[in-house]
């Protein structure tokens, strides 16, 4: 029995090609009909992969046709678009995918959840047997180990999540934080919503257009502050998000210094996501003020991404150990233990739980 | 007049060996942290905590052997004072660190303990003085409370270092691996405040108990002790009246501890002369 993976991802195919393939109602049946004893289609926005165990030699083209959404799936070079991994290489590939090493954003964890869902769906439909069961269970274990023993998932890598992470690093518990959103732009709204999702309850909103302010305030359950009074409210808030369209900075060191002095020991986190910027960079010099504009948020995201990339070698070491283990398992032959894997009551503890 | 027993050489060898093992335990935590930092990862798991806990057990063993040897609380010379202080630092870390989720504090605590014990072991300060009279329980209470307070001040100093590291990264927007492991600024500041209060309370207790010792103390010792008390009273006052920004309080905790250690040296030195 051979275990293999045939697929395409953001590394090998553009979105136009990727959207031609996916998990269809027919896919698993077609794969079975083509001789796959076990088959699982793993389908995300960045990849479509078929994991299968088969006695018979199945070409990449045959597998690709089974997961084609459109019969006429355009003109592309099948050999360069699809990759194929067999046995230990297949295991290595899946372990890398589950650990987020093959993702567009290195270390993202969403892919693990998607892999678990795909496995569960295939298991429920009876498409998974002892080979794929072992392969995926080990992949989930590897991903967990990589996440625990390396910094591959550390640090936020999008502007919104960086803002939230920084707020947490300054204030800890966000539920006691007061947030003032200046401007009712889309970017500001997104950041405010991200903070609300992390526990912020006290949200205030100020905008030149009162109508737009009330509309957004109703959506995010915020209190409206008149635009002429917003600077006075800076005395009471912990987080200030600015996203208004203005040529000159609204908040400068001169008009904020007195307020900053009155705040005493309370830190103020300013997220300036407007371009041109709403806050003079000199404000960051003030005691207890932490000012981040779009560029600095992006720079933090880049730093986190670079840090994640540094962890790839450590993650690969963990993966290599498990690949060696899987290779041994394949060499021993799974058939002997197949029965016990299908019926957990026989006594294989690794069968319990998808994680 | 009560002097040390003549056959005190064997226990000395034993207790120093125990102290060497203790120092090695703390050193293991330091080395692991250093290696992890080189790899760009901060130490995970409970290795540091267990290394410190093991080191603490050996420290306790040392103090127990030495205490039996000298027939009183082992605070009879500068060497013992340093080891006792290191023991207080480790104990307060184990009480405070996990409670306030400051597990990373271990990475900062271990070097301080290694420094204190390493210095005590290397420097020729383990000088035996003839012990006069029976142990004075008030004097022992006074000394041990004061050193426990120093332990709390040491931890406040460590939390201060952590605060400044975290604050600097946030201000400069240069976030390193350690940033993600350090607690939030507000939590660190709360920990600094609590440690300062604990230290101040214990020190006050030690200071007051000094009046019940029943024997005259050198004036310089009393002045030094009041100097430390006033220093920390000023820091706490400035913090609660909001004269000092958190960053200033953190810096003062570091400066204050350095000054307090210098004065401790003065106090112990004058006590030995006395």
Structure description:
- With 355 residues, chain A is α/β, with parallel strands linked by helices.
- Chain A folds into two domains: 2-154 and 311-343, 2-Layer Sandwich (Beta Polymerase, domain 2); 159-304, NAD(P)-binding Rossmann-like Domain (Rossmann fold), CATH 3.40.50.
- Chain A has 15 helices and ten strands.
- Chain A has helices at 15-18, 27-33, 60-66, 78-81, 88-98, 110-124, 130-149, 159-171, 186-197, 210-220, 230-233, 253-262, 294-310, 312-332, 335-342, and strands at residues 2-9, 36-43, 47-54, 83-86, 178-182, 202-206, 223-224, 239-242, 268-272, 289-293.
- In chain A, strand 6, helix 10 (210-220) and strand 7 (223-224) form a beta-alpha-beta unit.
- In chain A, helix 7 (130-149) runs antiparallel to helix 14 (312-332).
- Chain B is mainly alpha-helical.
- Chain B folds into two domains: 1-125, Up-down Bundle (Four Helix Bundle (Hemerythrin (Met), subunit A)); 136-274, no CATH class.
- Chain B has eight helices and no strands.
- In chain B, helix 5 runs antiparallel to helix 6.
- The A-B interface holds A 148-151, 154-155, 166, 168-172, 264-265, 267, 284, 287-288, 290, 292, 296, 299-300, 303-304, 307, 310-311, 314 and B 39-42, 44, 166, 170-171, 173-175, 177, 179-180, 182-187, 189, 239, 242, 244-247.
């Amino acid at each position: 029995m051979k275990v293999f993976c045939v697929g395409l991802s953001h590394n090998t195919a553009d979105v136009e090609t990727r959207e031609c393939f996916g998990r269809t109602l027919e896919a698993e049946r077609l794969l079975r009909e083509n001789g796959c004893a076990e088959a699982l289609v793993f389908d995300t926005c960045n990849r479509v992969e078929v994991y299968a165990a088969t006695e018979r030699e199945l070409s990449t083209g045959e597998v690709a046709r089974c997961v084609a959404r459109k019969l006429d799936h355009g003109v592309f070079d099948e050999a360069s678009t699809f990759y194929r991994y067999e046995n230990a290489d297949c295991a290595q590939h899946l372990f890398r995918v589950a650990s987020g090493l093959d993702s567009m954003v290195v270390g993202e964890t969403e892919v693990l959840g998607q892999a678990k869902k795909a496995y569960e769906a295939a298991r429920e439909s009876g498409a998974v047997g002892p080979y794929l069961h072992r392969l995926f269970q080990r992949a989930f274990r590897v991903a967990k180990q990589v996440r625990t023993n390396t910094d591959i998932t550390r640090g936020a890598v999008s502007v919104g999540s960086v803002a939230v992470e920084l707020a947490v690093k300054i204030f800890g518990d966000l539920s006691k934080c007061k947030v003032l959103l200046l401007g009712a732009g889309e970017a500001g709204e997104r950041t405010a919503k991200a903070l609300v999702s992390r526990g912020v309850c006290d949200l205030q909103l100020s905008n030149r257009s009162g109508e737009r302010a009330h509309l957004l305030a109703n959506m995010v359950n915020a209190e409206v502050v008149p635009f002429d009074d917003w600077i006075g409210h800076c005395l009471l808030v912990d987080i200030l998000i600015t996203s208004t369209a203005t040529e000159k900075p609204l908040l400068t060191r001169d008009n904020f210094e007195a307020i900053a002095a009155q705040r005493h020991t309370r830190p103020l986190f300013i997220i300036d996501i407007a371009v041109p910027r709403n806050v003079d960079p000199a404000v960051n010099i003030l005691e207890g003020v932490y000012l981040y504009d779009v560029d600095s948020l992006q720079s933090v995201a880049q730093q986190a991404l670079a840090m994640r990339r540094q962890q790839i070698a450590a993650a690969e070491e963990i993966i290599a150990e498990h690949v060696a283990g899987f290779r041994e398992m394949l060499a021993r032959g799974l058939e002997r233990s197949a029965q016990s894997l299908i019926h957990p009551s026989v006594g294989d503890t690794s069968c319990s739980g998808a994680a | 007049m009560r002097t040390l027993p003549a056959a005190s050489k064997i226990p000395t060898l034993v207790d120093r060996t125990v102290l060497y093992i203790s120092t090695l335990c703390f050193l293991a935590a330091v080395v692991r942290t250093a290696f992890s930092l080189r790899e760009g990862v901060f130490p995970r798991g409970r290795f540091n905590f267990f290394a410190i806990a093991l080191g603490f057990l050996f420290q306790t063993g040392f103090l127990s052997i030495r205490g039996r040897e000298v027939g009183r609380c082992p605070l009879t010379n500068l060497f013992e004072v340093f080891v006792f202080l290191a023991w207080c630092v480790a104990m307060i870390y184990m009480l405070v660190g996990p409670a306030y989720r400051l597990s990373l504090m271990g990475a900062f605590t271990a070097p301080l303990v290694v420094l204190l014990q390493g210095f005590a072991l290397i420097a020729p300060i383990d000088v035996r003085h003839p012990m006069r009279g029976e142990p004075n329980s008030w004097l022992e209470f006074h000394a041990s409370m004061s050193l426990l307070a120093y332990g709390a001040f040491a931890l406040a100093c460590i939390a201060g270092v952590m605060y400044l590291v975290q604050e600097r990264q946030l201000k400069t927007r240069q976030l390193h691996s350690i940033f993600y492991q350090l607690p939030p600024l507000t939590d660190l500041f709360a920990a600094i405040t609590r440690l300062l209060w604990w230290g101040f309370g214990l020190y006050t207790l030690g200071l007051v108990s000094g009046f019940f010792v029943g024997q005259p103390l050198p004036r310089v010792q009393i002045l030094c002790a009041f100097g430390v008390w006033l220093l920390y009273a000023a820091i706490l006052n400035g913090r609660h009246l909001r004269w000092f920004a958190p960053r200033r309080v953190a810096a003062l905790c570091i400066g204050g501890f350095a000054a307090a250690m210098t004065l401790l040296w003065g106090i112990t030195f004058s006590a030995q002369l006395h």
